[in-house]
Write a sequence for this structure.
């Protein structure tokens, strides 16, 4: 039996947070990032589109010591 990777994991492996413009094809045109974290309430909210995600990641980098990290 051959194991197959879940499609969402494949997308995460292809995601380059340092170059989101090159990853636009991984996102729906209606993409919205919903964020809630009681530790960083000033960032809570919805971020629409790639531009919104880029803005969120920039604010997160300014606000936190670790920024955003992904583990597949």
């Amino acid at each position: 039996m051959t194991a197959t990777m879940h499609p969402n994991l494949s997308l995460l492996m292809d995601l380059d947070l340092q170059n989101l413009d090159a990853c636009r094809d991984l996102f729906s045109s209606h993409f919205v990032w919903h964020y809630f974290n009681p530790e960083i309430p000033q960032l809570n909210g919805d971020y629409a589109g790639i531009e919104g995600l880029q803005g969120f990641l920039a604010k997160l980098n300014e606000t936190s010591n670790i920024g955003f990290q992904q583990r597949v």
